[in-house]
Amino acid sequence: MFQNTIFNYSIFEFPEPEELNRKLLNDFSELKNHNEIKRTHLFNGRYENIYVSLDKTPELKPVLEFASQCAQQVLDLNKALDIGYWFNDMPPQSVTIPHTHDDDDELLSGAYYIKVPENSGNLIITTNKNKKEITPKEGQLILFKADCQHEVTKNNSQQDRLSIGMNFGLKQF
User: Fold this and answer.
1) Which CATH number fits domain 2-170: 2.40.420.20, 2.40.30.170, 3.30.360.10, 2.60.120.620?
2) How far apart are CA 173 and CA 72, in angstroms?
3) I need a surface site. Which of 41, 50, 119, 133 has the fewest CB within 10 A?
4) pTM of the model as a whole
């Protein structure tokens, strides 16, 4: 794990992600155009959030479990966390505009990277008008405070980039 306390982010490496990422990419490719898939956040002709349930992508379960454990570590909590997640498919020339995830009860946000072609965009985290640019890698999980403004630079590759966006909050029993 790498932690940067100035910009409030942590980077974790999922162990041996290649086979898992291949399966997730295949599942997503088969499902992304189905009519029953929920899509939100339409910007510049692209839905940034694509929701696919665990019953359609069971390979995602180990990623979510790993992410929840990492989030508990970052938050220094022994309490169960709720996790909301979505796929973010970023075709060539796409960007993600600056935003935060502190609308509801989110404590932490993040992204797990499935496919990251070279020059497919960097994550920029802004804290107190300071910007940190991170070049993500496949199999990385990057967690940051939900109120940190973040964005993704233009995908200048010729391939789609695929990640899983996440929000964590306290589990409500």
Assistant:
1) 2.60.120.620
2) 17
3) 133
4) 0.91
